[in-house]
Amino acid sequence: MVELISIIDAIVTLFLALGLFFMFTGAIGLLRFPDFYTRLHATGKCDTLGEVLIIAGLLIYHLFVYSPGAELSVKLVPVKLLFLIAFIFLTNPTGTHALMKAAYTTGVKPWKLGEKRQ
Amino acid sequence: MLTVFLVTGVLIATTILLALYRAALGPGVFNRTVAVNVIGTKTVVLLVLIGYYFERPLFFDLSLLYALLNFIGTLIFAKYLERGEIWSS
């Protein structure tokens, strides 16, 4: 039983590390890219995947380590986490698309090679 | 395992600081809006981690609420920037 717990801990740590890698990639892209559209390109995908990976790791931790022997309200938490994953997968690309459309309609020019970084 | 959660939370807070630079200094209103949206979605994950670290299941409800409010805020602000008004009568 102890070996199973340690294997689950290793898997959860792997998921958290992968999610942190993607979140750091998105943040560095938000800092370093030259343009509004490219920054949106970096954060829209990297942040969605990173957050979903971290919440999936916590879901595995809850199902195998945290949940057994708990009361009913704690046992229902994975449903909330699944709802959270679904919301992030739905809302994050929708918000990115709305912002991109608003910027394009308002007339923000894309960056071309050789121009000054915005 | 709690140490892993603590380190993950601190590193997420570091990425929030990186995004806060763009929110404070980014040129134009669109860069700032993107940075605020990113900070909001990172805060959702940070709330879930806090709920596991302090063993309070109440924080999961808070993170669900915060995800929905952040999405509504970003969407309405994008519509406002696009049209110049929120309700199109």
Principal-axis shape of chain A: elongated
Counting helices, strands and paired strands, the structural category of chain B is mainly alpha
Tell me how many strands of chain A there are.
Answer: 0
* CA-atom Rg of chain B in angstroms: 16 Å
Count of individual helical segments of chain A: 4
Question: What do you see in this structure?
Answer:
The complex is a heterodimer of chains A (118) and B (89). Chain A is mainly α and 118 residues long. Chain A has one domain. Chain A is 81% helix and 0% strand. Chain A contains four helices and no strands. In chain A, helix 2 packs antiparallel against helix 4. Chain A is elongated, with a radius of gyration of 19 Å. The termini of chain A are far apart. Chain B has 89 residues and is an all-alpha fold. Chain B has one domain. In chain B, helix 2 runs antiparallel to helix 3. The radius of gyration of chain B is 16 Å and the shape is flat. The termini of chain B are far apart. In chain B, 35% of the residues are buried. The model of chain B has no long low-confidence stretch (mean pLDDT 89). Chains A and B meet through helix 1, helix 2 and helix 4 of A and helix 1, helix 2 and helix 3 of B.
